Amino acid sequence: MPQVSDAAHAAVKRHLPLRDRSGARRSLPQDMAGLKTANLGLKFLLELVAIAAFVYWGASHSPVIVAVILAIAVPAAFVAAWGLWAAPRSPRRLRRHARVPFELGCFALAALALIAAGATVAGIAYALVAAVNAGLLAALGQLEA
Prior knowledge:
By secondary structure, the chain is mainly alpha-helical. The chain is built from 5 helices and 2 strands; from the N terminus they run αββαααα. The protein has one domain. Helices cover about 70% and strands about 5% of the residues. β1 and β2 form a beta hairpin.
């Protein structure tokens, strides 16, 4: 693995232009813009999949009337709670120190719902993708998004 020079570290800290292998100048924040956008898109996709996971979990119950009620009520409760406490434009949005655990807890519950409904591989995959997304959100300074 190549060593990173002190000049490169200083350039990153000050967001000065860097040079790629071909010698062309590039700016680190511009290069990361695509990754940041993709990571926020992934977070939104995780939110949508959480809704689907709660529907799937609810629909996996018996009798049918219980399945219908759970398949409607549980995702609706998730959407209401997320919209109230985690949505970026919500006037009641939790502060970061409370919101991040809330969001991670919601994603964990969605993963557990998939596992409980019998979709173990999907639940584990969902949990792993949510963990990677959370790590990238922190690393890229996107916890306020």
